[in-house]
Amino acid sequence: MTHEPGQSLADAVSEATAILRDAGVPSPRVDAELLADHLLQVGLGRLRAMMLGDTPAPDGYAGLVAERASRVPLQHITGVAHFRYLQLAVGPGVFIPRPETESVVQLVIDHVQGLPHPRIVDLGTGSGAIAGSLAHEVPGAEVHAVEFSPFAHAWAAKNLAPLGVHLVQGDLRNALPELNGTFDVVVSNPPYIPAEAIPHEPEVALHDPPEALYGGGADGMELPTAAAASAARLLRPGGYFVMEHAEVQAAWISAMLARSGNWSSITTHLDLNGKERATSALLAEPDNGNGRIGE
């Protein structure tokens, strides 16, 4: 794409759309518009209105389109990821939050309805998308977040500080031991991709940090299993655990939770695309030794 002097915004966006489509970008028109808006900062509604006139294309637009055509993630170019009601700062070294994870946040919001001051922890927070959304959308919530990667932790700190989230750098396997048994909700979107399953999308395979993708072990289940064990440690009896996973892992995760003996009400949840995206459970009441639970 060559930015011709005097080329209109409408023509430039149309040309960019064709370039991105040819490069295999999944949403070429939307990305072309978002790149233009990144430079003009007018919002998509105003941008589309400007395209009806003879507004010139912004300087630098062709370079951004070429970068996106090379399959650099849109969010790395703009520095922003949109997630529910938040605008998150993102870039190299942090997992870009996905729209399907928004449904996991909704499960937590629905569960804590009526709790005046729910205590929630997000294990493996990445950019802070889940923890930040819960802090923003659940009045009175006390939200904690744990992130292992120093790079992702830095992005999360930037995103979560204004929202009052208690962020710690640590391993989800053993984090927050001083808070064992105190949380109403543990939520996690841990790395879960099997070792041999290389993602198809170049944006994911080449730009998302490997430590945010691969769950450990041939089946990718080491970190999801660890997240469940930590949830059992951190939750109060009757507390709620919900974890995102790949659709093919739903049955395995339900069986793993059932096998541990710690959980009741194990439920698989579909995302907006009808895929088995998350599993939730309640921490069982402790057995008091007479074989009867919770008495």
Automatic annotation (TrEMBL):
Reaction(s) catalysed (UniProt annotation): L-glutaminyl-[peptide chain release factor] + S-adenosyl-L-methionine = N(5)-methyl-L-glutaminyl-[peptide chain release factor] + S-adenosyl-L-homocysteine + H(+)
Record SUPFAM superfamilies: S-adenosyl-L-methionine-dependent methyltransferases
UniProt keyword terms in alphabetical order: Methyltransferase, S-adenosyl-L-methionine, Transferase
Residue span(s) of domain Methyltransferase small: 92-193
Gene Ontology MF terms in the entry: nucleic acid binding; peptide chain release factor N(5)-glutamine methyltransferase activity
The EC number(s) this enzyme carries: 2.1.1.297
Alphabetized InterPro entries for the sequence: DNA_methylase_N6_adenine_CS, HemK-like, N5-glutamine_MTase, PrmC_N, RF_methyltr_PrmC, SAM-dependent_MTases_sf, Small_mtfrase_dom
GO BP, sorted A to Z: methylation
Biological function: Methylates the class 1 translation termination release factors RF1/PrfA and RF2/PrfB on the glutamine residue of the universally conserved GGQ motif.
NCBIfam families found in the cross-reference section: hemK_fam (TIGR00536), RF_mod_PrmC (TIGR03534)
Listed name of the protein: Release factor glutamine methyltransferase
Native source organism of the sequence: Pseudarthrobacter phenanthrenivorans (strain DSM 18606 / JCM 16027 / LMG 23796 / Sphe3) (Arthrobacter phenanthrenivorans)
